[in-house]
Amino acid sequence: EIAAQAEPWPGLDGAFLADQLLDLITREVRPDIGADWPVTYTAILTRCWATNPAQRPLFTEIVDEISNGVEDIFTPLN
Known about the structure:
about 80 residues, single chain
């Protein structure tokens, strides 16, 4: 939401939001990644979405990657 400056799935019904999100996640539906998003950010994001938890980065790895790519990540988006 922060990077896109929009809701990831606009139009979901608030009354059934949890059920709808669970359905999307179970089907491995992910929000769109903007073409102008920083490469460092999108690489971390897609790794965090891995179906297999063993393939997801550790928090310390995320911190290191953000620290190493801070200029890339925090460049203002259009």
